[in-house]
Structures are given as C-alpha cells and as structure tokens.
Please model this.
Amino acid sequence: MAGIDYTELIPNNVNLHENRRLQRALEDWQPKFLEWWKDMGPNGFQAKEVYLRTATSVDAQGWARFGYVRMPDYRWGIFLAEPEAGRQVNFGDHKGQPAWQEVPGEHRGTLRRLIVTQGDTEPASVEQQRHLGRTCPSLYDLRNLFQVNVEEGRHLWAMVYLLDAHFGRDGREESEALLQRRSGDADKPRILGAFNEKTPDWLSFFMFCFFTDRDGKYQLASLAESGFDPLSQTCRFMLTEEAHHMFVGETGIMRIVQRACELGREHKTDDLRKFGGIDLRTVQKYLNFHCSVSLDLFGSELSTNAANFYTAGLKGRFEETKKQDDHQLKAATYGVAELEGERIVTREEGALVSLNERLRDDYVADCARGVARWNEVIKKHGIDFELRLPHRAFHRAIGMFADVRVSPDGQVISQAEWDAKHRDWLPTEEDKAYIQSLMRPVTEPGKFANWIAPPARGINGQPVDFEYVRLA
Ligand SMILES: [Fe+2]
Ligand SMILES: [Fe+2]
Model:
C-alpha cells in the first residue's frame, strides 16, 4: 500500500485501476488540470528543469525522490497515508463507531463544502504566486517556490480525488469548478478572502507561506481527525508536504531578518533602504498584514457551523486524539476573546461553538514560536528590536472584531486614531513600491539578492550554490 504505482497514467496508491469509473473521471480531469497549470501556473518557467522532490511512498522514512523535472511533467497523483486498522470516529455524536469509508448520507452536503473550501485554496495560491519566478532572489528560492507550487497542485488532486470518488456527479462538477475560479477575479473569485489577495513580491510570499499556509496546516490537521476515513488519510499525507511550505516561509523571513541585522550593524543604522535592505519595521508591517488576514481564515469566534462539523464527526480539534476529555464537549466551556464596550475581555463560552477560536489559539501559539526564532536572530546581532504578532483583534474583516478599530497591541481605538496611525502598522503604498523596487532576479548559482541572507544549507544535502533550476 505504501508504495506508489508510477506505471499508471495517474500515479496513486489507492489501486485506482480497480475502479474504472473513478479512473475514467480522473483521467478526464487530468488534461483540464494540465491546461489550468499551463495557463495559471508559474509564468515563464514551464519548460525549465527544476530540482524537485516527488513522493515515492507514504512511509515516514524516505518518501521522496529528488531530481530534475519540468513542472508540467511533474507526476501529480493520489497519495493517501496508510490506513489505521480499526480506526474509529473519535469525537462527536458518533464517537466510538467504526470510521466511515463512505460518506454518511446526512452529512453529504456539509462534507462536500468542507472539501471544496479546502480544495479551492490549493490552486488559488499557485495563481497568486505565478509571477514571482521572474523576480527570484536566488535559484535556491526559485526552486523552493516551484516545489511549493507543484505540491499545492497535488493538494488540489487530493481534494478532487475525494470529490470524484465519493460525491458522484456533484463531486465531478465541483472538480471542474475548482479549475474555473481564479484568485482575485471579480466574477469568479476564489472562495476565501486571503486567497484573493495579491502575492506581488517575495517578502509577501514568505509571509504567505508562514501565516496563510499555516492556516492550511491547521485546517488539514483538524480534517485529518475526521471520522470520514478517506479524508483523514488524504490530509495526513498532505501534512507531510505542508511541513516544507512552513519551512520555506519561516526560513525565508529569518534570512531577511538576518540580512537586515547584518546591514544594520555594518552601516550602524536602522534606515536600511539606502543600502537595499528590508528594515525590521517594514518586516513588522508585512507581518501585521499577513497575520491578520490569515486569522480571518479561521472564521467567526462563535460558530454553530463549527459546532455542527464537530458533533457530526467531520472536523475535529487540532490533535483531537491526544486530548484528555470526553471528545463531545456538550457541557464544556472555552475562553474566547470578546468585545465588551471599549475593552477586549475573555469570556467563557460553550466549547462547541468556540471551536474556530480554539483552532485559532493553536495557530497563534505556533506562529509565536516562529516569531520567537526570528527574534533570536535579532538578539544575537545585539539589535534592540522585537518582532511581534499583532493582537488577534487587529485589522480583522471577519468575526466580532470586524467592526472595530484595534491597535496591534490590542487597544480599541477610534477611527480618527486609526486614520492617524495605520500607516505605521500596515504596509503603505510607499513601502510596497520600495519592496517592489528590490525585486530583481538573481539567477547565478550561489548568488543571493542583497536583501536576503543565503540559507544555512541547501536542499537534500546539495550545496547552496547547486543549480537548483536550469535556466539555460
Ligand atoms: Fe496545500
Ligand atoms: Fe501549502
């Protein structure tokens, strides 16, 4: 089961050839996917050879092979994690029943919506990032961008497999629609707000991987707990790929921070724009933006939808099975940040309706660990500056803080005060223009743009100056 069959048109470890109907549906979708990839995938690099990893099995050990691949030839396929023998529904009203191998009829619509919403983010991010290759800070970074892109493409395959295998004609229609929506399109936008934002530069890209992709990690982790076993198996393998995307974001920002510190010490100033660096204040503004739009992705603080997903056994908590409670939460409460007049207070709410907020808490804690590692770099250089996560109520468009103005340190403020200060908190047109002015491609192996430090090591044991993308 663990090995992936690459002799088939669609590589898979689900014995696809035994299900002719499904195989035909996916083989019919495959050329449409490739057309989408050529139209909306990385612009200008489709014919180049890229040093990519491809899944060869779903074992924890050695699941990937590395080699040069032209992206349209990447072997996108269907890879599920090993089934867990005797797995049960581990939470909600159906707790203790055997995990479902087929979609339970009464939850069909809800489950389809969950899968479509997750699936829609995967091609969306590829679309958002499609022009970045032209301004890469190095071949190393270019390769990492493309690795993330092909894997997001594969995540789309993962969701389309579930739709085609388990949702009949509706599923096939949704699979088509996933290729028809477009990030940022006025008529056919992607489903979630953050996935319609532009990713116009590499600072935004690294922030996106750190903050927005991490939302994906937490959504996948809670879907990996699902009582619907195929969804669980799919998401468990997606999470192993996702880890690399987190790495690209965290180390990308860390290298920008490091370079800022080096330039600051060398020139004894924090005004780095003269020297072509990205100052830490600008990093903080981009951090504030990307963190806040990503916090919105978790939805409203209090949500009966979230409660219903849980009670139905469809979507669990992060690390559900590691928690020591009744896994039904009917009587339990959870502390939720809420607005009380001009103050933000924590109030106990029913645990079921608070599940979005709980997942957001897990996410924030994870983000904070990354920010702490960036701050270690700053400290090591003896520079007096600390990057911070903005307060969760800052710059929100969804949930109970959407209608108030809140400063990054969590003070409810007036519109007038917001108008006076938001330029210090979020990237301005001037900031964006400066960052854009730095976006000049560096494509000589081993060379890096002036605004980012080289990585500590290369990919898969290769040297940093390895030719990660063959441009010639
Ligand atoms: Fe993904
Ligand atoms: Fe990702």
User: Anything to note?
Assistant: Residues 229-267 form the longest helix (39 residues). The first strand starts at residue 49 and ends at 55.
